[in-house]
Design brief:
Length: about 200
């Protein structure tokens, strides 16, 4: 068969293995808990708990560049490449789905664009933050996340990709109307360099 017609050999995807330490399952049982975590390198959300027989139960799903994860009440929030997801446990206390006592289903996806969202947290009370760029901002309870692209703490917006609530003092300029972002670096107050300047659509 001519080379240009040959079918390329594809190597199988490497098998993903999770191995806990010797006492990990005993610790999960003693603490009566399950764990959730993300890994952006593999693009996976993992939910780990125990089966009825005491063996490790591992459930995973794929989300491109998933990072931030926050569990609050019956909700689970997770950031991915351009979305912030909200999953809800739809089971009532004591109800089972097969052998599982929680069943998280996607209920809402907020399209944020590629903000490089890292950590996600839920605030339970209003708070006031102030920064040189934004002045004083009063916020209501809700989701707050690390918006790495714009160098700020942000929350969801009904009309934009995000609403900034705080910027660190070393961020010298941001124009949210034009999208111009500039970070500055000051070395002992003498040298000032400009880097990471972008024009966003």
């Amino acid at each position: 068969m001519p080379a240009h017609l040959s079918t390329p050999q594809t190597s199988p995807q490497p098998k993903l293995e999770l191995t806990g330490s010797q006492q990990f399952t005993a610790w999960l049982a003693e603490q009566a808990l399950s764990l959730g975590f993300t890994t952006y390198q593999a693009g996976k959300l993992f939910l780990i708990g125990l089966q009825k027989d005491g063996r490790l139960s591992v459930f995973e799903r794929t989300f491109e560049r998933c990072m931030g994860l926050c569990a609050t009440g019956n909700s689970l929030y997770m950031s991915s490449l351009y979305q912030l997801w909200r999953f809800e446990n739809i089971l009532e206390p004591g109800q089972l789905s097969g052998e599982f006592d929680a069943l998280y289903v996607p209920q809402m996806s907020y399209v944020t664009g590629d903000l490089d969202i890292h950590d996600v947290a839920m605030t339970t009370a209003g708070y006031t933050l102030s920064s040189k760029l934004l002045g004083e901002r009063v916020s209501t309870p809700g989701i707050v996340f690390v918006n790495t692209l714009f160098g700020c703490l942000a929350t969801l917006s009904e009309t934009h990709s995000f609403r900034p609530v705080w910027h660190p003092p070393f961020l010298s300029k941001i124009d949210l109307r034009s999208g111009d972002v500039a970070h500055s670096l000051r070395i002992k107050g003498v040298v000032e360099e400009l880097y990471d300047v972008v024009r966003l659509p």
